[in-house]
Write a structure and sequence with these properties.
Its main location: Golgi. There is one protein chain. Among the domains are: 156 residues, no CATH class; 149 residues, Leucine-rich Repeat Variant (Alpha Horseshoe); 287 residues. It starts with 9 loop residues before the first helix and ends with a helix. It has 962 residues and is mainly alpha-helical. The longest helix has 114 residues. It has a two-stranded antiparallel ribbon. It has a two-stranded antiparallel ribbon with strand order 2-3. The protein contains 42 helices and eight strands. β7 and β8 form a beta hairpin.
């Protein structure tokens, strides 16, 4: 009997297929092996990956030309990244392992990027899916590997097939979300134009599908906190394209088959519009260097008006209204020009104005935007409108942000509106209190307090102006109640009636910041001493739900004590026992600590300030600026209770003794008299300064004249020196010529003398010969006599021979003498030529000295120019001195500082005048040095044999006389 073959397990089959893939040489065999592995990839990812992963990656290159095989390989790799959840081998570590295999070798990523350049649909789509899966597992490594090939990914956005674009957008979103470098590279690949083309092709915001949403997400990733991309976006003209996408912009709709389809609105429309508004806010981040140019560009292209229209369009959903108002706030905040122009916009109010409880339908439904915003914020509304009102409040805060003129006008208008019947008036709302509203709306009071808080925060003039608001006429016998006292009364009422804590917190926020570092406001508050007792009772009241109110009441008491004085209605010496005895130091510090650690304060930055669902009241209690104020001053408030009541805080952190303050006040009159005297001295000093200016101008003119004389003397000296040099050269040449002629004559004379001597020697020899011949003839005639006298003749002949020898020696001596004289003449000629060379060297030396002298003169001229610059600088210092004297007079803040600054001004003026006089003395000394140097130069020229004209000497004498 035949035995049945052993059943093969999945692991064995995978191993067999992996081996076949590795060893197969035919394309069909490899494709069959890959198809088999694909069937196991979902259920056995670990086995397939461990046995065939590298061979599968290698097949992407080996079989790249066969699209069918390539499709199967990519599908197998994708299946390994996304196995079945029920698979026994399913694990998150498999994806990490697979991603490491691709990212640790950049060539593997480049293979996938190369497939994006093919035209095959499945190769492109599966490569994008695979790159996204790798990025999900190893995002940082994938971003590093894909840097050089990001252009290939961006190019897929131009693919005409929707499926490719749909897969490319999420991949680009993932890649650009956290990598600034990739964001810049993507923008460099013309991504902005491609994004807007995709949005337009998909039907823009109203008819667009998920493609528009992904495109907006990519746009947001590219511009979020990236100033360079924002600048690129702005300068390449893409702001106009943003404006075209918004409602009211010029845009083209996607082609549809019928008019009904043209009117069709995508379910994604509101989400798309909200996303675009969120992108606008990314260009307007507070504190960014690109915010200001972005604001100007948006307003230039009409985006502000479009957003305002959306915010007040009755058809706009509430989320769109909220985001539109937030965009408006960001677009004008900190831009003075836009803040001023914002108030001129007109809109249709969201909430119709109400007067005496009745609407006014007959009035035009158009209002200025600030009035519409105030009406929206301060009119009672349902809780689901809180986010809209909060955004409108932010818009008003942005309108008055860091703009003194607008804040002053806004506050003055609110003060003037108290006499009228304006319901949309923050001051009226606060002073009337919650009982003045028919509908109990705690946020009406809260918004009003926030607006007034921002109007007076860190603005002493605004606080002073608001303190002038009173109720009642003392001349008619009515009780005069100040604004602070009215607000305090409303606060105490809310504490006693246990009203909504948002109302109490609103009043406490406003009063705490108003009284901070304002002794006059503290004294106004202490005019009603009973209010202190109500605050102490609120702190002592038990209950975990009153933590914030207790803490704020303690903070307000601490501020009152910190900035009170001994002249306050309730002196500091009486306030301290109230805190330490009646309330108790520990309870005070505990209330401050509980407020500091309360989640609404501690976690304010990370807690969204939005409305609650289900129609409940939102959990919004504080303004952002107020929480910053609290956190900056918690430590100071904690230390306030331990401060000595004798020490007072006068707008600073340094405590001073009150007796010292009184003594200083007693000295004010004396200081004032001293200041008046100093002012008189100032006038005298101004006259002296004017006189010194005139003298300085005179000295400047004199220096200018001397500079002119120096220049003229320099020119004359230069000209005379050139003339003298030419004259010396001519004389030298003449002397040389004469010397040459003289020596030539002497040489000719000596030559003649030598010739004469030679002739005389020849004549003497001829005469001697004739005489000898004559005697010889005589001897021949008288031979006998000669023979007789032979001995005598021999002697005579010997004598004649000796005489002839003497004559010959004399001739030789004469010739030697002539030769010696000729040698002497030649030596003398050589000496003369040496003298001529030395004279030439001397002339060259004189010329060099002439150049050095000319450089010295030029340096003297430069020093004279520097001297002129010094005079101009001194003149400017005199003008600065005059300005400082005036500034020191008008910038005096108090009596002691006025005296000190006046004395300092006098001392500085005297020092400056002495410095100016010293500069003038140095100027004259410098001019004297120049004259001495010029005299030395002339003396040096004379020593060198150069002549100095008498005119220059006379000029020197004239200058000395001057």
């Amino acid at each position: 009997m035949f035995q049945a073959p052993a059943k093969q397990t999945a692991t064995d089959t995978i191993s067999t297929l992996s081996g076949r893939l590795a060893s197969a040489t035919l394309l069909e065999d490899r494709r069959a092996a890959i198809l088999g592995l694909r069937s196991f990839a979902k259920d056995y990812p670990a086995s397939v990956a461990s046995g065939a992963l590298r061979d599968l990656i290698a097949a992407l290159t080996k079989d790249a030309e066969d699209v069918d095989t390539l499709k199967v390989v990519l599908e197998t790799l994708l299946a390994l990244f996304h196995p079945n959840e029920q698979s026994p081998e399913a694990s998150d570590e498999i994806a990490l392992w697979l991603a490491d295999e691709f990212t640790q070798r950049e060539d593997n990523i480049n293979i996938l990027l190369g497939l994006l350049e093919t035209d095959d649909f499945y190769s492109r789509q599966n490569s994008l899916l695979l790159l996204r899966a790798i990025h999900d597992a190893r995002p940082e490594r994938t971003q590093e590997c894909i840097l050089t090939g990001i252009g290939k990914v961006v190019a897929t956005l131009d693919d005409p097939r929707d499926a490719i674009r749909t897969e490319a957008l999420p991949l680009l979103n993932d890649l650009s979300r956290s990598s600034t470098e990739l964001q810049k590279l993507i923008v460099f690949e013309n991504a902005f134009d491609r994004i807007f083309n995709l949005i337009q092709a998909d039907g823009s915001l109203t008819q667009g599908t998920i493609v528009v949403q992904d495109s907006l997400s990519l746009l947001a990733n590219l511009v979020r906190f990236n100033t360079s991309n924002q600048t690129n976006f702005r300068e390449l003209g893409h702001v106009a394209k943003l404006a075209a996408l918004l409602p009211g912009g010029q845009k083209q709709k996607k082609a549809r088959s019928s008019l009904e389809e043209d009117d069709w609105v995508s379910p994604q429309a509101d989400k798309n519009l909200w996303g675009l508004l969120a992108i606008l806010r990314m260009f307007l981040v507070r504190g960014s260097i690109s915010t200001l140019p972005n604001q100007n560009a948006f307003v230039k292209h009409g985006i502000l008006q479009q957003v305002v229209n959306m915010a007040f369009d009755p058809a706009s959903p509430i989320p769109i209204k909220i985001e539109s108002l937030n965009v408006c706030a960001d677009m004008i905040r900190g831009n003075a020009r836009l803040q001023q122009g914002f108030a001129q916009l007109q809109v249709r109010p969201i909430v119709e104005p109400v007067t005496n409880g009745a609407t006014t339908p007959n009035e035009p439904a158009i209002a200025y935007i600030i009035d519409a915003l105030l009406n929206l914020v301060l009119t009672p509304a349902a809780n689901d409108m809180f986010d809209v009102r909060f955004a409108a409040c932010e818009c008003i805060k942005a309108y008055i942000f860091n703009h003194f003129q607008i804040k002053t006008h806004f506050l003055q208008r609110a003060i003037d509106g108290l006499a009228g019947d304006e319901t949309a008036n923050a001051l009226t709302t606060l002073l009337t209190g919650p009982q003045g509203s028919q509908v109990i709306d705690p946020y009406r009071i809260w918004f009003a307090a926030v607006l007034v808080f921002h109007l007076i925060f860190d603005d002493r003039e605004a606080k002073k102006k608001l303190m002038g608001v009173v109720e009642g006429d003392s001349e008619r016998g009515e009780e005069v109640v100040t604004c602070i006292q009215t607000l305090t009364a409303n606060l105490i009422t809310s504490l006693q009636l246990d009203e909504d804590e948002r109302i109490t917190i609103a009043y406490l926020m406003l009063l705490s910041t108003w009284l901070f570092e304002d002794a006059a406001a503290v004294n106004d508050f202490l005019g009603e001493a009973s209010s202190l007792q109500s605050l102490v009772q609120a702190i002592q009241r038990p209950g975990n739900d009153r933590t914030v109110v207790r803490g704020l009441c303690a903070a307000l008491l601490g501020i009152i004590y910190e900035f009170s004085t001994k002249d306050s209605p309730v002196p500091r010496r009486d306030l301290q026992p109230l805190l330490t005895t009646k309330l108790g130091r520990e309870k005070y510090l505990n209330a401050i600590a509980e407020l500091r650690h309360h989640p609404d304060v501690r976690d304010f930055e990370v807690t969204p300030q939005t409305g609650a669902s289900g129609g409940l009241l939102p959990s919004v209690f504080f303004d952002e600026t107020f929480t910053d104020f609290l956190k900056d001053n918690f430590s100071r408030l904690s230390r306030a209770i331990d401060r000595d009541p004798v020490k007072e805080i006068l707008q600073s952190d340094d405590g001073i003794d009150r007796d010292v303050v009184d003594s200083l006040r007693g000295q004010i009159d004396e200081k004032q008299q001293a200041i008046e005297q100093l002012q008189a001295e100032k006038l005298t000093l101004e006259q002296r300064v004017n006189q010194e200016q005139a003298e300085r101008r005179k000295a400047e003119d004199s220096a200018q004249q001397q500079l002119h004389n120096i220049k003229r003397i320099n020119e004359e000296l230069h000209r005379n020196h050139e003339n003298d040099t030419r004259k010396a050269e001519r004389e030298h040449k003449q002397a040389l010529l004469e010397l040459e002629n003289k020596y030539n004559l002497q040489i000719n004379a000596l030559n003649n003398k030598m010739q004469q001597a030679t002739k005389e020697s020849a004549v003497a020899v001829a005469n001697t010969k004739r005489e000898y011949e004559e005697k010889l003839r005589q001897e021949n005639r008288s031979r006998g006599e000669i023979e007789q006298r032979l001995n005598a003749s021999d002697r005579a002949r010997q004598d004649a021979d000796r005489a002839h020898q003497q004559v010959l020696e004399s001739n030789r001596a004469l010739e030697q003498k002539h030769r010696d004289e000729i040698a002497a003449i030649i030596l003398e000629k050589d000496a003369l030529e040496t003298h001529i060379q030395e004279s030439g060297a001397r002339i060259q030396k004189l010329q060099n000295e002439k150049s050095a002298l000319q450089s010295t003169i030029e340096k003297s001229t430069a020093e004279a120019r520097d001297l002129h610059s010094t005079i101009a600088a001194l003149k400017s210092e005199v003008q600065d001195l005059k300005t400082k004297v005036q500034d020191q007079t008008w910038k005096v803040k108090d009596a002691e500082e006025k005296l000190r600054k006046a004395e300092t001004a006098v001392k500085e003026k005297e020092e400056a005048r002495a410095a100016a006089q010293t500069e003038l003395d140095d100027l004259f000394v410098m001019l004297g040095d120049l004259e001495e140097k010029r005299a030395r130069d002339k003396k040096r020229l004379k020593e060198l044999g150069e002549e100095v004209s008498e005119a220059e000497d006379e000029d020197d004498e004239d200058e000395d006389d001057e």
